[in-house]
Amino acid sequence: MNDFTLWYSTPATDWSQGLPLGNGRIGAVVMASSHREVWSMSEVTFWSGRIEQEQPSEGGKAALEEMRSYFFSGDYDEGDRLAKQHLQPKKRNFGTHLGLCEVVIDMEKKNSNSDEGGNFQRELDLTQALAGAFSKNDDSMIRREVFASNVDDLVVSRVWSEVPGGVTFTLSLQAGTESFKVVALDDNTLEFQGQATENVHSDGSCGVWSKGLVKLVISGGTIASRDGRLIVTGADEAWIYFVVSTDYRRTDQDWETESGSTLLKALDKGYALLREEHIRDYGEQYDKVDIQLGGKRKADLATDQRIRLLEQGDGDEDPQLFALFFQYGRYLTIAGSRKNSPLPLHLQGIWNDGEACRMGWSCDYHLDVNTQMNYYPTEIVNLGESHLPLLRYVEDLALAGRETARNVYGCDGWVAHVFSNVWGFTLPGWETSWGLNVTGGLWLATHLIEHYEYSQDRVFLENVAYPVLKESAAFYLDYMCEHPRNGWLVTGPSNSPENHFYPGNSREGAQQLSMGTTMDQMLVRRLFEFCLHSVELLNKDEELGRKLEEAIGNLPPLQIGKKGQLQEWLEDYEEAQPEHRHLSHMYALYPDSRITPDHTPELSAAVRITLENRMVQEELEDVEFTAALFGLGFARLHDGETAYKHLSHLIGGLCFDNLFTYSKSGIAGAESNIFVVDGNFGGTAVVAEMLLQSYAGEIHLLPALPQAWNTGSITGLRAKGNAEVDIVWENGQLIYTNIQTFSAGTFTICWGKQRTILHAEAGEMYYFNSELELVK
After folding, report:
1. Close Cβ partners of 35 (under 8 Å, ≥ 6 residues apart)
2. Is 589 exposed, middle or buried (0-12, 13-18, 19+ CB in 10 A)?
3. Quick one: which of 312, 414, 495, 552 has the fewest CB in 10 Å?
4. pLDDT category of residue 56 using cuts at 50, 70 and 90
5. pTM exceeds 0.70 for this model
């Protein structure tokens, strides 16, 4: 067993113990025991809801000007009342992502104790994206293997026995939605169909239709169908094929026959070739990065045991658990988001445990950190192709957001708010206290900037990134107004997700809407500066460039409050909930780099105070993305020990047994511990940022290395400027680094206090020793 396998000696009793598979479109969580295996199936486009026409606001710019006047004068209640009147839509058929169905495989049970005493094991091999299980009965060993192929667009499994005729089981499908139906087409094929409908986030009548097939092929033995089930008796081996299609964004009926065509092609190839091509295709992405975090390892212990030991404070004895978590995040990225995926990762990736769907949360695209965090590590961990589904989604969001910009604000360009769906929803949420996040779409669109800064892809900049961001800039240039007191150009009314404050000196009447939140201003500055740089680089839109340059000069600066903290709002308000889970005003520290220890020491000290003040709150809203944000913040402050502390808490205290991260019950309306995948990706980004940081032409090696990882290596990390970096270290000291540059440019290479300048050519490899001397 390799270092990068999740394995367990006990059965998966529920979804939170199942092992995830995915091909970028179809997801499966495999819950295995000795006598039963259940696949919780999902498909990323299987959404309830529908496209709905927006209703133009009656107020437009005049109403916006009126409510702003109240906020500027300090009458927050009246400003809020007007915002609700003009900027708060009614909840309609927004929809949610839903699970498809369950594939249930009931094995012949010969030994009631077969889950115990070494007779059972299940695993997920991250190096090959294969889930497996074995169970030992009195006279034989039954083995199972499952994978989700991107190449052939299906989920496929093999079941076999050491003893001829030892494979006997029944396969059935259990409904995911009320309309789900299954029929046996013949003795070895089930056909299913159903519509994604529910009554919490839509009216129960609208949603995507799915249709698919489950095919069983056997060697030896017999197979029959009965009451919508397939029954295998006395086979030597069995192969299971699962295919599904949906009518999402389809106007023809061809989608109904696609599953059949996919299945026939897969059957022609056969299991062995499907498996071989799957491993090759997956390895092209996964094998780009290798990580080793020290000689101590506990891979001989089951993964759930290692998590418990970390929770108890034994993490220093198991550094490779952090490497496993890091590669698990990369695995989930590849499993959930491939360059041909129709949609990006949502709140639960491409998987679905059903919990968020039945609550007010919705399993959707939250735009105030969650969807962004899903893609925080993508570029640095060398999975830039996996970023593409999100970038296409942003393009679609920009098209939909033009209508909202006109209808709600009477402005040019495009805008989106706190969340979105697959139907082009860009309006504010239906409660202004959390829904009026006027830069949610912009925050998501900054991923276009990230992709360009890592790839230096001029064609992508000119054809994709700049056109979308230019239209976003057009909105804010039209929408923002001048602050009457200081002349700053500000947004608003909007909130700082999803926090609230006490205006003035009163501790009564907490508010959430104000003018010019820090989050808004940082994002707008990032947008305007990048668009201005693009104007100069692409030599176009000179008039826009002049407007941007003037606007940038009028944006508010980052401010330090009376407690020494980075202000979250334009005014130095008192936090009504200092234990709040969101840290969106830390954007300038990460993922942006306007605040760095080397270049902005005073602001760095202020963000440290902000983070520490939040940490010490007894009632801290302790959720997965907050733990990741703490880790990322302290990593950027070059504080490896504190970053390591929060990463340890994320893995040891906020992960299910299957290493999926979760949001705690009772926080933000959660009715139970709910799987939210952003913590997996945020934690992966923490590991990467502790080992490598790149911004403003600088490459920082081991900037936040903790003592627990004092010896190790990592290969294949990406740096901004289109470079790849390998690092080897011992006893906390750099041994050497290789830097491969794919574009020409100048880099400052940094380790500790040492600095060296690299004038790089495209397509070259540079080797630096422990003194940062260029050896070759």
Report:
1. 106, 107, 108, 109, 114, 135
2. buried
3. 312
4. confident
5. yes
